[in-house]
Amino acid sequence: MVQVAYGTRRQRPSRAGRYGLSALLLILGSALPAFAGPKPLAQVVDGRCRAGAAQHPFRPSLSAAKRALTETNKLTIVALGSSSTAGTGASDADRSYPAVLEAELRRRLPGREIKVVNLGVGGQSAYEMYLRLEGEVIPEKPALVIWQTAVNDAIRDIGEEKLAKILRKGAHKLQEAGVDLVLMDMPWLQREGRYPKYDDYRAVLAKTASESGVSVFPRYAMMKSWSGSKQFSEEEIVGMDGLQVVEAGYRCFGIRLADGIINELTGGREPGKSTN
């Protein structure tokens, strides 16, 4: 029991009292999910991912996905990309962004058949991914493809016009197949100055998407906003190598993608919209 001597300053708790308080907090912490009510504790934590959502919104155009969900009650999404899609740096495959996206969509679209197919391969270039569209992506019969690309091309400096040509051809091939496409912007990097043309390649991706009528997931702006707002430490977003996205970043990508997709499919108010 903590004793207080009246008329004097408050005495510090004994070591036993401090340890007893720590044990009590540990027990209460483990019980929190059971008493959290209708809003799971994870949703409170995930609120950090929505910092700056109003400034960097994701509002995709998803006519094919809407049609698939309305007519078949099913939605198949293919995540095509390199290591950021494969989930390199995550502690488990279930913590990659495609896995988080699938879990979020299933939770928020109950009664619907949702599948997110992860076709990420670390280190691949835009052209290598383009070559996989015919044989691997389109046969999955997706209504939506999320294409995360261009970072390896920027690092290798393959040529801006070459990248634009690959992205145009890929967008056209998917549109011909009746598939919605979202291009994922390149990541914010702590040391992107090592790649002098990095911003030029980002501009190529944005311009090609606009010319092709394709939505862009604003990953770069989101990551930079999270870092600047101190919602996360830089190490939570990008790993020690300064290049690889890590687990907190993957979770946030999945949540913010789900927010935009759900908002477009349901016509409801965009989840997580704020003025932060």
Walk across the major sheet and give the strand order. 2-1-3-4-5
CATH superfamily of the largest domain: SGNH hydrolase
Total number of strands = 5
CATH class of the largest domain: Alpha Beta
Helix percentage range = 40-55%
Shape: globular
Number of domains: 2
Indicate the CATH architecture of the largest domain: 3-Layer(aba) Sandwich
- How many helices? The count is 12
Structural class: alpha/beta
Q: Which stretches of 5+ consecutive residues score pLDDT under 50?
A: 1-41, 239-244, 269-276
CATH fold-type name of the largest domain: Rossmann fold
Rg over C-alpha atoms, rounded to the nearest angstrom: 22 Å
Give the secondary structure arrangement, pairings included.
Blueprint: H1 15-35, H2 41-46, H3 63-72, E1 74-81, H4 83-86, H5 97-108, E2 113-120, H6 126-137, E3 144-148, H7 151-156, H8 160-176, E4 180-184, H9 198-212, E5 215-217, H10 219-229, H11 234-237, H12 247-266
Parallel strand pairs: 1-2, 1-3, 3-4, 4-5
Helix pairs in contact: 5-12, 6-8, 8-9
